[in-house]
Design goal:
single chain, three-stranded antiparallel sheet, 9 helices, 38% helix
Amino acid sequence: MKIIELDSSTVIDQAIQSANTEQKLIILGNPQNMEDFQGVINDPSKDVNAILQEASNIDPQQWFEQQGYEDGIVDEWPDYLEFPNDPTQLDFSIHKETLTGKLLANLVGVQITTTHSYQAFAHLNFGGWNDCPNPEIHCAIWKMWEEKYGAKVIAIGVDTVEAYIQSPPKTPEQANELAAQQYMYCTDIVEQGCESVEVLAAGLLNNNQWFFWWD
């Protein structure tokens, strides 16, 4: 795993292209974020292979159900909900200033030699604080999403995750199912973001970009 400086103007395309190679680029954001990452990356109690082994024993669907997935959430979308016909434009944020939206002058990332981008959660030992799932949960869920939607993780900030989606949901039914899963995975994107699972579902249809944030 190698820390590298990045060019904010080209980094999104670079990370997306690397997702299909064994040398994956994961954008970490502002260099100050590295101080937060260094402690968990170097935690000897969390071995990468051990995390991936734990992930292989997790059933994502069962995990969603344990979070309340079966509590009627899928049935709550009204029939009149309108879904957009056009794909949402890509709007990644990891390489931009939060308040101004300007490109960061200084940006860093990490090169990871691995088969799948979801394994980056194990390499970075990401999660396990507040409502953010443990690293093995991230790996198990994103493995399922990669197989179903071609989801490629390209950025992991201190408390955010962004991904490029090769095969996003094409029907309202598919978007409904995914929105329920994403709400179970990261409630903050609804409760402190779009404010309703209906809006989240509509935004996932034909959308090649996903964003998650844990407070």
